[in-house]
Design brief:
BirA Bifunctional Protein, domain 2; 8-stranded mixed β-sheet; alpha+beta; Rossmann fold; 15 helices; binds magnesium ion; binds adenosine-5'-triphosphate; 5-stranded mixed β-sheet
Length: 417
Amino acid sequence: MAKLQPVRGTHDIMGDKARTFRFIQQKFQDIATRFGHQEISTPIFEFTEVFNRTLGETSDVVSKEMYTFEDRGGELLTLRPEYTAGIARAFISNGLQQSLPCKFFGFGPMFRYERPQKGRMRQFHQMDVEILGVPEPQADIEVLAIAATLLTELGLMDDVTLEINSLGDSESRNAYRDALVTYFTAHKNSLSDDSLARLDKNPMRILDSKDDGDRELVKDAPRISDYYNETTKEFFAAVLSGLDALGIDYVINERLVRGLDYYSHTAFEFVTTKLGAQGTVLAGGRYDGLIEKMGGPATAGIGWAAGMERLAELVAPDLMPGAPRPIAIVPVGAACQTEALKLAQDLRVAGFAVDMSYRGNMGKRMKRANKAHALVAVLIGEDELARGAVTVKIFDDGSQSEVALDQVMTHLQDIQQ
Ligand code: ATP
Ligand code: MG
């Protein structure tokens, strides 16, 4: 029989990797909650329209990465490639415009049909933060503060650089767009096919092209800051001064556009040089037009998503809290099995981590307890039991003492302290 393999670009997450994921997720949950965000879980799949209409037909995601299928009822569905569109859909479906501002966080698997490589999977995991209903730059500053706090508490702030740009309001963007069309049209023959297709529909996307020829052209393309109007300048300045006030370092990158079509004003990425080609660990921006475009009430929005796999590659193992050292329960002889079982259950209910193996003589079981890095072993033998006692052995100093059964719990509590 052929070896059963996971689908290309998907991974099983277990062992240290699972622990790292859990650690990152808990930090994220904790920090997002401190910033006043509520958890939201949207479905893994949505009507294809939800993503088609929002991410933009010229985006990489929509044009070539979506997992789209027809279900048995003939509905066209797509496995979510990102979080924002689903949250925007949920905002509209649940009529949440009554309760603005909405501050959300969520995490979970995302799906994109990409060429698998280091840091790029077909099923990967994102953590996501969104603020809806706040057109002020304060929201931009706040979501960036969440990101900076997370990266700091994960010990990664020295490994990353915040790159930030303003894509401007619609007036600035239209002016810039015209300038780009003029420039790239003059160099039409050197553009890649992808970029040629974007020239009419969304020329700013060409700035994000990964094609070497396109990148050469992009170097001399018009610069967006030359097209900012006053509103755009003021907004961007307010965001930057907020970051200055909070001591969050950044560099302005005028070539930074985002991969999806719905952004305006602020766009940003936290990048690292430590992961090779896939160096963006967290990315986001403002999307004031998105909800209206989806058929909801005009509502401002800003948010970001972080790639958990990429963060997990960077987090130092010694930052993670070690697993609690278990109490090993060792029945000495089959007659003590039931007593051992009962004690293990009592301790577990009381909150102790307890390790008990399923078979083997005392020697084997002690070996196993050692391997599990147990703090103590509680030996339950017939003779002691007859006296209403057990033997407690502390692994670190090898000391051993007899303890009355009804005193075991307090005795173990003292040792654990
Ligand atoms: P890229 O330019 O690397 O393709 P993107 O613009 O498609 O990134 P976003 O849609 O902004 O990425 O996703 C936010 C974050 O999610 C990324 O910065 C990255 O950390 C992570 N991410 C995106 N796609 C993948 C993937 N296929 N595998 C693993 N992580 C990913
Ligand atoms: Mg991508």
